[in-house]
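Entry 14. Two folds queued back to back today. First construct below, sequence then structure tokens.
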Amino acid sequence: MATRFIVCDGAELARLWARIGASENEELTWVPREDESRARPTGFRSLQGGLTAEAIQKLGAKDGDDFALVSEEAPFVRAAVSAVHEAAPHAPILVMSDKVQTEDLPDHPCLRGAGLRTLIRDDVDKEFQHLANLRRVVELRTLLQSREKLGILLQPDPDPDGIAVGYGLRALLGRKAPTAPLVSFGEVQRPENRAMIQALGIDVRTITPDELDEFDGLALVDVQPTVFGESPPARVLSVDVVIDHHPERTGYDAVMKDIRTGYGATATILTEYMQAVGMEVRPKLATALLYGIKSDTQLLGRDTSSADMQAFAYLHSVYSPALLRRIERPALPEDGLRALGRALGSTKVEEGVHLLVLGRVREDVIPQVADLGLQAEGAEWSVAAGVVGSDLVFSVRNVGYVRAAGEVVRAIVEGLGVGGGHRSMAKGIVPLKNFRKVHKRADRATIRKALLAAFVRAIQSDEERATLSKKR
């Protein structure tokens, strides 16, 4: 755990800090004033040698440690910042004062100002979280500032979270599309995602792996290199930056990684970056990030952390409701509506599974129908299946407190096709020739019977394992 070095200007402020309540990872130090006694405040040690770089160096700060300077005097703050920077050049600094204004603070690559008496203990911890994010932004900007053309790589068929984060990262770096394009190995397909990039004026360029050679920098957002198949392009196995919230994978190198598996959306990480540097978030960008969080957490109802909620609340104060409505209400094509009508004509919920077989449809219709299907009474699982080209494609949604959708889909397609996803949403693709080898036919009735049996079997087998585990 990183150590926080708290340096207080005089005994009065040291005693005030002690009343706030010190955290166990804090080293408390005070610098005695000339007009006060040398009586040591409880829990503090005196800074031996005065406010100098040599004295700060003796505190033994390591890489990753932080400093907080507590003072109401601008000269003290300037001297302390200089001493800390000389002794520990890479240490971030938090200046806590009710009187020293932002314009009074000296130049420093990783410095943040905050109030003092107005803060309670939780506020102090929050400021240190901002400081940790500021450190990451400084590292990020330092690493990428020399790159002439940075590729911001998203997953194939990018989702709102990835699109928003790519858009936000470009803004954070002060770049434009020509020097930091958003790229993907697969085009944006879902109607609401296409509506998002159209409404926001974002261009996501579809490229081949060979085209990565035009970039001298590469940042992956909301995705990790080994997601790109069993043999991913060599260029993505050694990248500059990876920012993601999915389970951490191995098998690649990145100069900088920020992977927070406890977060419900990568957009939350970018929002925290922007808050840490005090960046103005305009309505268009706020809407993109808010929609990224909303879609990945199903409106804060799935895999949601307190960080997601705080980021959502912050973005909600500056987003554009009109712009969000344009994104969230994509048009369902007429043939999709007809397919949905046919499927609903014979639909029913069996064993908690609502299965809708659509026949031959456009691929982007399938996930939209899966979203609708979960609204059926008694449905814990919604499965929408359709024939796209020579494949059987199905999208899965669940209520979030049952077995992970990605695990169920992987179990169902094993040996037949490919699939996977998140806890409450997933996708599977089975070539029709493979389906026919097993089930002889691929008409709607056969697809419905086979998929329903496979889902019930996969879900129940998990429940049986859980029961056996409890008995043991």
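Second construct, same run, same settings:
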Amino acid sequence: MHVCDVTMFYTAHGGGVRRYLRAKRRWAAEHTGERYTLLSPGANTAKRGNHWMLPAPMLPFSHGYRFPLRRSSWVNTLLELAPDVIEAGDPYRLARAVLSAADRLGVPATAFMHSDLPRLVEQRFGTWAGQRAQKYLLNLYSAFDAVQVPSLGLANRMRELGLPQVVCQPLGVDAEKFNPSLHNPLVREWLKIKNDVRLLVFAGRYAREKNIDVLLEAMRLLGAGYHLLLIGPDMPPSTLTNVTVNGEFCDSVQLAHYLASADAMVHTGDQETFGLIVLEGMASGLPVVGVRGGALPELITPEVGMLAKPRDAESFAQAVRDLFEQDWQTMGRAARQRVDQHFRWNVVFERQHAFYQVLQSGTFKADVLEIAHV
């Protein structure tokens, strides 16, 4: 079986989709021996092993993303690759190219819903725009044989909106790369904080839906007994003395050391379709403080962390205090155990590989492949 992933959500500067696609191709090479190809935009036409690239212009202020303008070259390349299953990783022009190529090849097409486009649009541009985005998305995804979504909440919502061919496919984490054993006391020395100060960490893009302003206000309320390491490209500087900003790209090796050296992960985003960085923190042995929004409540159970009200700095600060009044180290160990049991990449990809096989056979039924809530 030859599976081809097609997406514009792939850059050299990291991101959750990139980590998922790299991990999937690596797992396939080690465990199945079958062919997994990635087709994504680049500066020029290029082939690097099983990664094919076609030229597309850069999107301004997008951290390296490129947006294809014409579909024909992408369709022709897919026809040349002749995969057995094609997966679209974004809901834009390339998704239509996937549908066109799949139809001409007579193979199934699946989409992976990595972001909740209607809610993101509604948050930025209002209800009317969100409704238009929802209509667009439903029209697009109804043409696919199956749509994968990473959380049960999103799966249920899409079904309620009239999209029956949805299957819940969680993402995962490299539990060797993100590991408590990478704890490094030099991180505290670099930050110039004492051992009794609770070190919190957040890593991700600087985007409105991450609610970084809420996180910073919570840090102001928490005061000197807590310190935040805020990691991500273009993160704004902070005047708070208990916040250190690393606004540069941080590779996974460096990030893994930062996570394992913290006391807890914090995440104020309320639009996450999954929350891959949360899993990476849990794999690093960290309890997590998140919010009751998006997919975070599916990951952050009472055994592994605390949940606060969305976009409420006082509630979030109190949740952080409450965490450290409990046995937070035991919660961190429980977080790691939860990852080991349910979210290692091999567990995730074995399930997805079975889904691809059923999809290729033409016997796919969403209710048969539904995952239990873990």
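Quick look at the second one. The chain is about 40% helix and 15% strand. The chain has two domains: 2-172+344-361, 180-342.
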